[in-house]
Amino acid sequence: MDNPQQNQKKWDSAAGAYDFSTAGGPEARWRPFKKTLFSKMAGKVLFLAVGTGLDIGCFPQGQDITGIDISPKMLEKARPRIDAYDGQMTVHQMDVHEMTFDDATFDQVFTSCTFCSVPDPVRGLSALRRVLKPGGSLNMFEHTGSHIFPFNVMLNVANPLMRRLGPEVNRNTVGNVQKAGFEITRVNNIFLDVVKTIEAVPAC
Ligand SMILES: C[S@@+](CC[C@H](N)C(=O)[O-])C[C@H]1O[C@@H](n2cnc3c(N)ncnc32)[C@H](O)[C@@H]1O
């Protein structure tokens, strides 16, 4: 598992080419699904992780959004998109495992292609649970491992290389959300069982 310094360094290194490698293909394809998920934003929202800000174009106008990302280089690239957002958006360079927000600060948490990347996903998700208000919700757009042959084998084989460059591609994120003390309210598979939205609330 990457330590926080290694993790930050990896994503700082990825920042320069991130838009080139992502914006044209996958991002264009997933935009409508992200827009649908993000249209549920309401109240005080925590957004993880901002990256270069590609998600910001999918946010509904007029929201009160706090964004975090571990990588200062990613946030530097995101700055023009943050400034252009038609609503209130503040960002912090922060590791999800070590967030400094008070307990029960946010009405909703949104994540986007992030729990493939956070080194200790169950600890990161538990930290998100801590900062959610009672009655709050977790809303995720994520890619995960697969149960479908041969995609499960392909993702397992690709994972050691992929995790060196950036994300892990074979995680059981739905299981990790449950392990972190959430109750799943909805899973919507978008591409096979690999790309999906996950909605959850803190378990009683
Ligand atoms: C695959 S990128 C996704 C960025 C953006 N949401 C998008 O879809 O374009 C993963 C992001 O997670 C951030 N990240 C990784 N580990 C993190 C952590 N522990 N805390 C906060 N952000 C983290 C990385 O810096 C990177 O910007």
Question: How would you explain this protein's 3D organization?
Answer:
Helices cover 40% and strands 26% of the residues. It is of the alpha/beta class and 204 residues long. The protein has one domain (4-202): Vaccinia Virus protein VP39 (Rossmann fold, 3-Layer(aba) Sandwich), CATH 3.40.50.150. A 7-stranded mixed beta sheet has the order 3-2-1-4-5-7-6. α2 links the parallel β2 and β3. α1 packs parallel to α2. The longest helix is centred in the first third of the chain and has 35 residues, at 4-38. Bound molecules: S-adenosylmethionine. Residues 7, 11, 22, 49, 51, 54-55, 68-71, 74, 95-97, 112-114, 117-118, 166-167 line the site of S-adenosylmethionine (SAM).
Radius of gyration: 16 Å
Estimate the mean pLDDT confidence: 94
CATH topology: Rossmann fold
**What is the name of the CATH superfamily?**
Vaccinia Virus protein VP39
Q: Strand order, main sheet: write it out.
A: 3-2-1-4-5-7-6
Tally of individual helices? 5
The arrangement of helices and strands along the chain is HEEHEEHEHHEE
Helical percentage: 25-40%
Any idea what the CATH architecture is?
3-Layer(aba) Sandwich
CATH class: Alpha Beta
The residue ranges in which pLDDT falls below 50 over 5 or more consecutive positions are: none
Task: Write out the distinct hetero groups bound to the structure.
Answer: S-adenosylmethionine
Q: Count the domains.
A: 1
